[in-house]
Design goal:
Helix 2 crosses helix 3. This protein has six helices and 17 strands. The longest helix is centred in the middle third of the chain and has 15 residues. The protein starts with 7 loop residues before the first strand and ends with a strand. The chain has two domains: 241 residues, 3-Layer(aba) Sandwich (Collagenase (Catalytic Domain)); 99 residues, Jelly Rolls (Sandwich). By secondary structure, the protein is an alpha/beta fold. The protein binds zinc ion (ZN). Zinc ion binds next to helix 3. The site of zinc ion (ZN) has 5 residues, from helix 3.
Amino acid sequence: MRHTCKICSPYPSGRTGDTGRSEEAASRERVDNVRVMPMRTGPGRTRAAVERMKLWENSRTLKVKFLDGDPAVQAKVRAIAKEWEAIASLELEFVSSGTAQIRVSFAEKGFSWSTVGTDALTVAAGQATMNYGWLETDTPLREYQRVVRHEFGHALGMIHEHQNPAAQGMIPWDKPKVYAYYAQQGWSQDDVDFNIFEVYSEDSTNHSAFDATSIMEYAIPDSLTIGSYAIGWNTEFSPMDTTFMKRQYPKDAPAVSELGVGGARLTADLAGAGEVDSYHFQVDLAATLVMTTTGPTDTVLTLHGPGDPGAVITWDDDRGRGLNARIVRKLQPGNYWLTVRHKTPGATGQYTIGIK
Ligand SMILES: [Zn+2]
């Protein structure tokens, strides 16, 4: 008999990709997957928190392939997964042969899970990156919606909402009861720690505030919390889910703008909360370059490369004029990237960027 409260684990714990590709390689997909945020730790001292996102390149086509399963069940999964195309600027192309980034199986009964975003690239070819453990031809539509929207949220880079750093301390867990509850479903204490209690500290986040209505949140029964606190099953995308994913995968926006060394400065706008703007430039001859932002906005500038957008060379907050950033660096010939974000999460503003 099917458990009615079975929930998703992001990826079976203890299982690791065996392609030899590291998590760092997975973040190479996109330059703003590595986000540096300066944090003041004392007078004159700064350090930076690094968030490592798992987002796919904006506007790309992701191929999706079913490894097994009933064609009627596959068709339902496909129709619901396609809803993400209206939110994120990505195409989910379902293929029946050849290679695919997202590989869906129904073989592991009782467990539904997905890798998070570009982590799918670390899974060996031919192995599933997503599994549905209880979807049958007669499963209610709302259950399909809940699970498929959720698992494809993972596949596009979202984490569990209760593992968002902003959720820390928000849910009054009764830990012994949570261990006992999930033990009945075959989960070890480690599984519970990994999937329920562990909060991402230096990793991807969905939202700047905890969103109990997110499609990425589990149901939390009152019996597992101290006092009176419960969250029901979410089957719909929350407003914050759609806002967040539209910002990560914007439509009609160039993923990366081209910047010329010694060329004209570009004027740009951090128009949405949490926006990160990405620039590419090429160095033909080794030279000491000055990379600056100007304008009224407190920008943070990060230099990535050479050749690898996932590698951070350095970053700066306020070495420029006013609250602007300034990086001076001798660079060898190669490809480099700059990313710009606002110092204050949630704030917006205009700036210019240039390289001399
Ligand atoms: Zn999940």
